[in-house]
Amino acid sequence: MSENSTYAAAGVSLEEGDRAVELMRRKVEGASRPEVVGGLGGFAGLFKLDVSKYTSPLLASSTDGVGTKIAIAQALDKHDTIGQDLVAMVVDDIVVCGAEPLFLQDYIACGKVDAEKIAAIVGGIADGCVLAGTALVGGETAEHPGLMAPDDYDLAACATGVVEADRVLGPDRVRAGDAVIALASSGVHSNGYSLVRKVIADAQLDLNAIPEGLGRTLGEELLEPTRIYTKPLLSLIERYDVHAMCHVTGGGIPGNLPRVLPAGLGASVDRGTWSLPPIFALLAQAGGIERDELERAFNVGVGMLVVLPEADADAAVRALKADGLDAWACGQITDSGSVQVASDYRP
Does one domain contain both 21 and 129? Predict the structure, then answer.
């Protein structure tokens, strides 16, 4: 055997991986729930589901990543928030069917393990799990020398939740005349970053500059973590007759709201009920992006939609605001068969 034929010589450092685990241990151990069995370091995450709490439980599962927003984190060498994006993209998909996200596992692939960087990423994942009330029961960090550049990494996660069979939200519950409530996004969230990066490159925008109207650097604005709506929405479901919810991700409102509507029904959404956040106006102007394309690529300020009876709309908005979310009535379910987004954004 050659003297240099070792795992380390091939580009994989087991010692650096072990150091990353120790650096992240405190954060991961803080992202737990009473149902978690065992601790960090096992081959599988164990979770004791108390089936006595449910009559007919359904498990809900979702998997996702954060896409090319990672390139912004790499450009700024800031990696402690991208993990919250990862959690949000998964748990906010689970809650829209009425399920409570119970536990999550992450996967990180990288060209070379940098213990501090991996610990920062996983720390952000743990922070996101705490915000969602979801346990982080395990994960994997894989070093891929020769396949990925040393500074490159990618993230994915999968989460599992539970909901009573007779409380699943979705198209079957939606009726014409229902109100549509908008919940404000925290910014661009984690969709459309291929277009964001093209605009930055073509317009030669500086991530460290403070554009007029933002109040912070462009990089800081673009790294604002995706909002996690899970706890307030679970509370809302317990208090009101919520019919459906829509996580506004890639495709925007026109591409996502139809996914929770039954055949034959549509919706009318009024842009005049909210102002276009400055970051989207900046991207549109710098990139020459037409409004239709802007609304297909981005959330344009609305990260989640809630559909419920008109009679409950005002009370639901007040409840969401009391939980710290900016919410407002933005439209209505119609029998038009299509989603119409009308008028102009409020100045």
Answer: yes
